[in-house]
Input
Amino acid sequence: MEKKSIKVSEQNNGKDVLLKVKDLKTHFFLPSGQIVKAVDGVTFSLEKGKVLGIIGESGSGKSVTSRSIMRIVEAPGKIINGEILFKGENLLTLPESEMAKIRGRRISLIFQDPTTSFNPYMTIGQQLIEAYRVHEKESENKIKEIIAQVFKLVGISDYEDIVKRYPCEFSAGFRQRIFIAMSMIFTPDLLIADEPTTSLGITIQAEIIEALNDVKERTGTSVIIITHDFGVVSQFSDDIFVMYAGRCVESSPKKELLLNPMHPYTIGLIRSVPLLEARKTKRLKSIPGFPPDMMNLPIGCAFSNRCEFAQDICFEKVPDLVEIRPNRKIACHYPQINYQTNQDTQI
Amino acid sequence: MNFKTKLSNGIKYLQKNKSFSIGLGIVLITIFIAIFADSLTPHVPSKLNPKFKLLPPFWVEGGNPKYILGTDAIGRDLLSRLIKGIQMSVGISLFSVLSSILIGTTIGVISGLVHPSWLDSVLMRITDIQMGFPFIVLAIIILTMVDPTPFSCIIVLTLSAWPTYARVIRSSVMIEKSSDYVDAAKAMGASRARIAIKYIGRNLLPTIIPVAPMDIASVVITESLLSFMQIGIQPPLISLGNIMSDGRNYISTHWWITAIPGFVIMIIVIGLNLVGDTLQTTFDPKLKQ
Amino acid sequence: MEESILEIRNLKKHYPIRKGLFNKLVATKYVVDGVSFKINKGETLALVGESGCGKSVLLRLLVGLENLTEGEIIFAGKKLSEMTALERKLLQQKQQLIFQDSLGALHPRFIVQESLEEPLIINGMKDKNKRLQIIHETMNKVGLDPKYCTRYPHELSGGQRQRVNIARALVERPELILADEPISALDVSLQAQVLNLLMDLQEEYNLSMLFVAHDLAVVRQIANHIVIMYCGKILESASSAEIYENAKHPYTNVLLKSAPSIKKGISDEGFNLDLKVGDTPDPANPPTGCLFHTRCMEADEYCMREIPHNKEIAPGHFVCCHKI
Output
């Protein structure tokens, strides 16, 4: 495993970067005059064939980040700053017609709720053909070949019967699998999965993650997975990006982050995940307090009022995202450099 | 919070919501006119004055400042008639909407609470029949059979409006009934009456209140239509519709007799709709956010 | 023998599915199909199963929101079917339900104080000052500042709302809490908080708890006894220690293994899902034989044909599988 992390750093300096987001700011301008800084200066990059896990709680801006990349932020939200370089091209300056060609073809989005992502009145087959024809003209036979391939990709072999049926005839888990197949018809370079397993049961969740993993392995597509579940990102992603109140608090290769989290928020999150392997201690360690009100953020670090390490400066100045070691960025005045997850009682 | 801060908050709110202030202003003026109509009329509205037939409004050439909005074909003061007409039209609309709300809510709540059962089916079929019957035909039948007094007009207008309330209320009762908080109340041991009144009832008023002004607006129009067709309010009683109807024959030469009441109807309807619009957003806690 | 607070015997809930003009019975949905277990005083029983396994319906049966098709509920030694109206009313005070959806469980137009007052008013506490006193006391207990009394539910955050729900369940000083996935809709950083709170309250008031969850990690800390439910039936039930260290049923093992975890992330373990791809069965059309055979790796023809029966493989450890 050592080898892999070294390779990661080499590639990062090289040119194999697929997506680079620089200082992205998406704010919501409410009619009441208030401004919600849903995404406030987010920077990250993703290499080809890698999986980036974005983790955050509700309201942390993780979904808005993904919508900003697709440029489908709804009013009153507006991308006011930043660059989104996709294969070296800035998506934010592209005309809408060009962007429409990228959506669904070069970048696909998988939603949380597989029920609403389908048109209930069209058969699965019709929808897949439609999804293809939005972008390219092709004979039906050729498209059918492609459909057979994408179904194989997500582990469905007897697709003949499935394409004739309607979305409502399948369970939520199966629909999500079909949706992944549908997002793969153009073998996009980037697949963004926004809480793809949140509404599913445990075993189905594992199946879907496995299907996503297969898709990634077989096609080399890069994946951004957005979730609030630390377990999912731990097992699936190569890099982890932790968001809190619209900002990145820590970003790092997975294993380093899991073994040696430095930001107090990340530490708190990892500690508070209920673990199967935990010893039966009486209490879980938890983060005190509540997530911040996005309309009324603290002046300094957004996490300051819940942080056990906070000092005076934390309440006055917003910490910058600093590269503390190669590939490890952290936004904290007092990063816990020596913290080890293993020391803790719960693992 | 004392009265003064409440008042200043209220003023601030009005300053921020311009359309609501305008609407509220119109509605308040209309209500004022309707209540004090008898003392506001400059002339006796039914008094004929053969000397001043078809007088134009005062700003038009040949107008007389004593008759601000002019007179009609038999020399009655138009402004006085208009004021009485507003009183009649608004009064009738208000009472019809109130009684439709009463009937509609009662039927809707019962139907929603007992759903699914035969009683619900019966009530809903009655509602469907009422909704499906063409209103104008119904109005003509009833108003030609009975004396077209204001009271019978209210009944006809109520008949046309209650089914919508019954439908809306029934479906919202059904949604409420299956909500977690009603389940929670049942699990606590709350009685059926308590659930109906305190839990479901409290959510009904906010469904009704915003719709009511808009509904009054549409009934104002319907009432005027009936009177214009001369099957509604009959002379010597005055409503906005029959003032317009009076001016029908003179529309090409003496436009104001028809146009001014029409304009008044329009203003009242706009005012009511503006108020309804704002109420809708204020009464929905989720929209507010 | 320990004293049990709640015992259910062979509980069944079947929904008829009717279709057509004459309401012809076309199928029966076996949502809960013969479930029995027992909760001892002061202990927590965790009912674990995936969505659609009937665990929520079971809770609704217990609080009387649904009528049961068959079976017996015994509360503190007394059969529910033999209780008088008054006794049932008392029972409603002694067992309280906490919902998963903290927002939906509170009336949107009730301020916090009204929501908390409701159970007290319903059970006839007329003295307003006494009610307020109890409410403030309970709010403090669940870590809510009484200043939130005048807030509406949508003005509170998810964690605060779930505290209100817990407070509402506690104002009556119940003996048994029925919690329907009380933390699964909460943010990660709040889940641990609320779980800790429930454990503290349990200790303080000597509460018994039926804790419904969809995964085994969540109940690790809180449960004394675990029941695994699948498609309306119990597949395995044992003490918590037995389940985590000595689980026997293939489905329990899948649940234990398939949950993504930080530890697996660190050790780079793969997904090794011991499961055939497929869905949880439809309760209206359950598989023949063992319910789990459609997804079980070890299933053979015998499993498809014969319904397995409960076997006690260790004291208190029941498994429903042919392969044991």
